[in-house]
Design a protein that fits this description.
Elements: E1 6-11, E2 15-16, E3 29-34, E4 36-38, E5 46-48, E6 67-74, E7 77-83, E8 91-97, E9 102-103, E10 128-132, E11 135-139, E12 151-155, E13 163-167, E14 170-171, E15 180-184, E16 187-192, E17 195-198, E18 206-207, E19 213-215, E20 222-232, E21 236-245, E22 249-253, E23 262-267, E24 279-281, E25 284-288, E26 293-297, E27 302-304, H1 317-320, E28 329-333, E29 336-345, E30 348-357, E31 362-367, E32 373-377, E33 380-384, E34 393-396, E35 410-415, E36 427-438, E37 443-451, E38 456-464, E39 489-492, E40 499-501, E41 504-511, E42 516-527, E43 533-534, E44 548-549
Parallel strand pairs: 2-3, 14-18
Antiparallel strand pairs: 1-42, 3-35, 4-5, 5-42, 6-7, 7-8, 8-9, 10-11, 11-12, 12-13, 15-16, 16-17, 17-19, 20-21, 21-22, 22-23, 24-25, 25-26, 26-27, 28-29, 29-30, 30-31, 32-33, 33-34, 35-41, 36-39, 36-40, 36-42, 37-38, 37-41, 43-44
């Protein structure tokens, strides 16, 4: 005989949000998808975030290297600055060949043309780099501003023999050490305070006239710059340079050589204090503002980075509570914008990595591998961070490695309070199932049902056995060959006690592995038909310890 008076609940995890209740966000909203990402081919499934494995290099050819303050990938090469004991207290340039896994020797490096190494914590002005006419221009807060030590030039006209030097612009010198550089119209655009100076075309170290600058808004300094392919009605696709200040965003278009260089403000209230969060993507330039993630669209309109079904961003709190905004780091590769931020969540400070999937337009995270510099390499990321010393890691969304720097890591799915009928009424879960899949040796999944206040209501465990044979764990001749299962199974959930609450959320934890899938949650519930309220002055503890009173209208 069927269970009477039941209603169906289906929850498909689809992204994370700041909201506590699914009803206030979107269907499938979660508060955490830690080390879980949206499966690229199945919209109703989550898979474990691939790990970064071991570093591809730890700079062993350098003398006691300590910290990579800058790395940028151009083609198959990663260039940057690293501190070492070869020049104590200073950063020196490096050139890493990602294909052959070797460093390329750089000539011209001396103790007198290097910047002072920056601190690894606290607010800072991060180094930047831009490629112009075969030269990598590097700005660094450690340059002294004396003589030629204003910015670095890595000459790559002979890629196998890069040469280092420092410079200030010839003919008309920059007034101060620039804080950032960007390539626009084959010119080096330098930020010096609130002025944006631009070099001659194809000559990043030459500024022929004293009028090659734009004043960007008020007296506050320029924070960062990035190019934007822009769609116009009259001219089709064109180019623009987006200039960010702490509370403003400006756009430069045209060029002085064609007498159409112009400057317009895009916003006088929205800005960016996180220069390394600025990343160009196929849909526009994404950046982290003071209160939310934003995007400058190709129509030159600034909007919060949001799903098409909403007008506001799903995730804001990690960025609103950023502890050191200038240390936020981000990059875009494949279809993922990922950003690492030290933030305050649930009363504690942690450094977390968040991924925004441009196909699904949803966030996942917080992920646990942290970094302070990221660059794109094909459809992967090159990552580095002070937590791991001088090291470069390659992170790919298609990797089959499930360790971070040789350490295993767990996954956690925490749903919002799921939408279950009338939110004022208590409900009881009478049946529930969930889709899981594991390969190899299988995975154990721990489940916890929680009340709206986070109290544990019930627990359960599901063991999903691997369907294939994992190499190294079997004896030849004692097993049958089979393919690893790639489709999840539906498992009954056997809770250790009844689940009764007005609001219910679910927590699922396991260890990252491949293949591993977390899918749909289905449940049947009954509405209890009553609303329980704690007595005045009584703070709810365990659900069974709460003293309730009846509504007086029920006594008549």
């Amino acid at each position: 005989m069927g269970i009477r008076g039941v209603e169906q609940l289906t929850f498909i995890p689809s992204g994370i949000t700041d909201s506590f209740d699914e009803l206030d966000a979107f269907q499938g909203a979660c508060t955490a998808m830690s080390n879980l990402i949206l499966d690229s081919s199945n919209p109703d499934q989550l898979v474990a975030r691939p790990g970064v494995g071991l570093p591809v290099t730890t700079f062993t050819s350098f003398t006691i290297p300590t910290f990579v303050s800058l790395q940028v990938t151009v083609g198959t090469m990663t260039y940057g600055m690293v501190s070492s004991s070869r020049y104590p207290g200073y950063d020196e340039p490096f050139a890493w060949d990602n294909v052959h896994g070797v460093f390329i020797a750089i000539s011209g490096v001396t103790g007198s043309n290097l910047p002072v190494s920056p601190a690894t914590t606290g607010a800072w002005t991060p180094p930047t780099a831009a490629m112009i006419a075969g030269k990598l221009v590097i700005t660094h807060p450690g340059f002294s501003g004396v003589g030629t030590n204003f910015f670095g030039l890595l000459n790559l006209s002979i890629p196998s023999a890069p040469a280092w030097s420092t410079s200030n612009t010839a003919t008309n010198a920059l007034p101060s050490v620039p804080t950032s550089v960007a390539n626009y119209n084959n010119r080096a655009w330098f930020a010096c305070g609130n002025l944006a100076y631009y070099s001659d075309a194809l000559q990043p170290a030459v500024m022929s006239t004293g009028t090659q600058s734009l004043t960007i808004g008020d007296s506050t300094p320029i924070v960062g710059q990035n190019g934007l392919p822009m769609q116009t009605v009259s001219s089709g696709m064109t180019a623009a340079l987006i200039l960010f200040k702490a509370n403003q965003v400006w756009m430069a278009t045209g060029d002085s050589s064609t007498n159409n260089l112009s400057l317009q403000f895009l916003s006088l209230t929205i800005g960016c204090q996180s220069p390394r969060s600025i990343a160009q993507t196929p849909i526009g330039v994404i950046f982290i503002g003071q209160d939310a993630p934003y995007i400058v669209l190709q129509s030159a309109i600034i909007t919060e980075l949001h799903h098409p079904s909403s007008a506001v961003a799903d995730l804001c709190l990690p960025f609103l509570n950023a502890q050191v905004p200038s240390r936020v780091a981000a990059a875009f590769a494949g279809n993922i914008y990922r950003v690492c931020v030290q933030t305050l969540l649930n009363g504690s400070v942690s450094t977390n990595d968040y991924w925004f999937d441009l196909r699904r337009m949803r966030w996942s995270g917080p992920h646990t591998f942290v970094y302070d510099c990221a660059s794109q390499y094909d459809d992967s990321f090159i990552l580095s961070g002070a937590s791991y010393g001088a090291a470069l890691f390659v992170s790919s969304s298609t990797s089959t490695i499930y360790t971070d720097n040789s350490a295993s890591y767990g996954t956690q799915l925490q749903t919002t309070n799921v939408t279950v009928g009338d939110t004022s009424q208590f409900k009881q879960i009478v049946e529930s199932t969930m889709d899981f899949m594991s390969g190899g040796q299988g995975n154990s999944f721990a489940l916890t049902a929680k009340s709206g206040t986070g109290l544990s209501l019930a627990t359960a465990y599901v063991y999903s056995s691997g369907q294939g044979s994992l190499w190294g764990y079997v004896t030849w001749g004692n097993f049958l060959w089979s393919s690893t299962n790639v489709s999840p199974y539906r498992y009954d959930i056997y809770w250790n006690q009844p689940i009764v609450s007005d609001r219910i959320s679910f927590l699922v934890t396991t260890y990252a592995a491949s293949p591993m899938i977390v899918g749909k949650l289905r449940a049947k519930y009954q509405v209890c038909g009553y609303t329980l309220r704690p007595q005045s002055g009584v703070i709810p503890g365990n659900l069974l310890d709460i003293n309730f009173i009846l509504d007086q209208s029920t006594l008549s």
